Write the structure tokens for this entry.
Amino acid sequence: MTASLGVVTPELIPFETPLTLERGGYLPRYDLMVETYGTLNANKSNAVLVCHALSGDHHAAGYHESESNKPGWWNHYIGPGKSIDTDHFFVVSLNNLGGCSGSTGPLSINPDTGKAYGPSFPEVTVLDWVHVQARLADHLGIKKFAAIVGGSLGGMQALQWSITYPERIGAAAIIAAASRLTAQNIAFNEVARQAIMRDPNFFDGDYADHDVIPASGLGLARMVGHITYLSDVSMGKKFGRSLPREDRDAEGVNFAVEQYLRYQGEQFSGRFDANTYILMTRALDYFDPTQNESSPLSQVLSTTQCKFLVLSFTTDWRFSPSRSEEIVDALIQAGKPVSYTRLESTHGHDAFLIPDATYERIFKAFMDRVHQDLGG
Amino acid sequence: MISHSYRIPDWIAKNSRVLDLGCGDGRLLAQLVETHAIDALGLELDPDKIATCLELGVSVIQQDLNRGLSNFNDQQFDTVIMTQTLQAIRRPDLALAEMLRVGREAIVTFPNFAYIRNRVQLGLSGHMPVNPQLPNPWYDTPNIHLSTFRDFEELCQTLSIRILDKDTSNLSGKRTWLGTVWPNLFGEVAVYRLTKES
């Protein structure tokens, strides 16, 4: 029996200990916007960390203010009786550092200058996020997460956790992810960044000083990204060659798919910050636990102590199944406990967010066992 | 549903590393984890069976056995098991060689086509046998490489595979008296424990 989490409320948690970042940056203090679902048990062993992807945030499940609003981005998979069962687990979800949904990021005020960081916000990496998440765990009194889960860039954080804090993670679910990006994947991110940077309203990232946002560039970045998150099949099914909807603005639009992409671009540029988008895509591009293959992935993973679930989707071409299988093979080589399924889906990379009975069942079976192994 | 042979647990060492090719719902591995504290890994194609493996706490990789085991190291496992799957593989000879590359020992079970019921059905009615051991019609069956005790042992010889132990059981995984005396005629399921000739 599954039910909704109902209305959930985020909390802003301040951290006053300074933070030195992997690529040399420094933050004297920072805030994290955090949501939690379920109840932390007495020995604090049932916590699950959910890591978000490029454009996600702390609002992973439930509803803000009223159930008529859009639910969190992973609402289908987090809740009572769901894959990440909040009757068993205490789920922690945060907006990563550098984000634009409440945690300290380019939109926040730099205490040294009294004005927003903007483009001067230091570069952050997946490893920085993992260290910050560990500090959040300390704050919550969680010594070890029962599981850390995420899709896409979120899966990369789960992978990094297994390497950086092997004793603090019991299980990792790495969904539609890769151990590092390919040149093609970095190329898509670069097109997105160029679309933003070439927008006349970008002003080298200081658009806030000019009271504008690079909406056109950010929208274009999202359009490009969105195409790579869908599949040829899913776009064909959803739009085919059909004509634009008449109830929406269709000026200069010839096909429904164009209208849809423009709508997605506009929605996104209204809610997301351009500097954050640049920062997040850079974190994606630089992620590489093998550090340019200075040691093979199987060796990097040899010190991990958790069990792994790796999932991929057949029509995902942004993070294709073969990229997930690289992680699986490295874990096999390292002799680590790993389970893997390549799930049938027509939804491309976005499949990790979309309801699917087989995906749910496998994800739930793994998580239920994690709970069972905690000892009830 | 054909049960696993009663002999398999006898051939597994405690705390050993075991790979099960076509592990199904993971019951055999889960049982061996319980009784022999093995380090278990299964390969399976069917997502529903994979979910059952995960519920049992058995690690499982979705992998097509026809594509080989190239992602595994030489001698990575103590024992590689394949129950009732050899006959459904495109190249049983290559599969056996791969099993003994990644594992020190292999345990293989398959339906014995020379079992008396099959001989009678084929011999008297002139039809391909359809029965509890081989339930599918010839045109729609996963069992594309049926063999007998004798055929299998010939193949082992060709591949320089040493037979460490052999047994037979009925479909419920139990020993039968006649099958033990005359396996190629009365054994329904052939059960072998193999290693590479040194």
